Amino acid sequence: xxxxxxxxxxxxxxxxxxxxxxxxxxxxxxxxxxxxxxxxxxxxxxxxxxxxxxxxxxxxxxxxxxxxxxxxxxxxxxxxxxxxxxxxxxxxxxxxxxxxxxxxxxxxxxxxxxxxxxxxxxxxxxxxxxxxxxxxxxxxxxxxxxxxxxxxxxxxxxxxxxxxxxxxxxxxxxxxxxxxxxxxxxxxxxxxxxxxxxxxxxxxxxxxxxxxxxxxxxxxxxxxxxxxxxxxxxxxxxxxxxxxxxxxxxxxxxxxxxxxxxxxxxxxxxxxxxxxxxxxxxxxxxxxxxxxxxxxxxxxxxxxxxxxxxxxxxxxxxxxxxxxxxxxxxxxxxxxxxxxxxxxxxxxxxxxxxxxxxxxxxxxxxxxxxxxxxxxxxxxxxxxxxxxxxxxxxxxxxxxxxxxxxxxxxxxxxxxxxxxxxxxxxxxxxxxxxxxxxxxxxxxxxxxxxxxxxxxxxxxxxxxxxxxxxxxxxxxxxxxxxxxxxxx
Length: 488
Description:
The protein is α+β, with helices and mostly antiparallel strands and 488 residues long. Helices cover 35% and strands 26% of the residues. The strands form 4 sheets. Strands 6-10-11-18-17-16-15-14 form an 8-stranded mixed β-sheet, sandwiched between helices. It has a 5-stranded mixed β-barrel with strand order 1-2-3-5-4.
């Protein structure tokens, strides 16, 4: 078994015997409730002499003859408690010493005081054993270090590693702050289907599942985008969703198959208005989570008090040595790159469409070099079939992406609401799929039909929650900001 999960037969039997001792005394080993008066965090704000009833998991025990000190833990922190044989009585004190282990849950009833060392402590007048742990916690002074065990038994990681505990607590508070920001700006949180007839809204390979009652195959959503815009069509002007998405693709430090996105769509906004809103949101989250807009991520100092702008098409034209907007044939564009000596021909053979080829070059040559917060804009129309064509040049999109340390944190655009253009874009995607492009958008004829009934002007944004959290809380992988990451 993995580190810190093994338990000897003797130790298990010893703990089972202690559980039996508790049952013989109390009648019940695993109690049904405890009426605590405060959380540990609440108790820390109270004055000495205040009576409290606290509960938590025991993380430390130290016996000093007639006196003992211990610590109990909840997600917000720990607090010390003390027991004396004189105050508890001989029987209660001995029973505690003989039958309580690290990892057990206990309720304590007493009053607050500070020790001579200055530590806030609960002087216990009465205790209740709430739950017996049959397996030990990870060794106290070494914590849980085995990566496999940390992710697979995350509850042990949270208990034993304060950094993990603080990161995950911060991540969940970040989602809470996010909802507050959206709600305060007039957005309504709604829910959209996870199982869909056609998973669309992004360039990704979906997971497939079968619906037994309908005897039909469905796909797990890769994005809630189309349904959120259908809500705009129905009259919900500003909507958002904290959505679990699923993409059946590769796994690395910044990509997982199950992940969380927040997407929002505002009727009557354009991409510039949404870019401003997105930046205000991200600054608000960082300020509330970290207390400053200057943060460190894996040794790199980042400044979120400002951002840069980069014209995507202009920068790609520099690399290609031509105008990428002039190409609609993937073979011709591939030849351009090979002739320039940028890539060997064999490296590009599997790229079956112009957008996948352009995106490949961007990821190989540009993305990783962007460190400080940078908004990319002015993308070719063939890159995203759901985005609005620019009035200034209909070969480009009213679209942006925010990059930090080579990671794409969000994508936003003015939405395509012209049903004629949308149908043509979907038809091109179908051709790309037929040509072997596994990451092309799945066309959705029902969505086009809804658009023919009339859409208002719309702008939407999708932000990867896990990826943003990893940067805010300085964690190297997405797994480090997910409570229960998927494991093989």
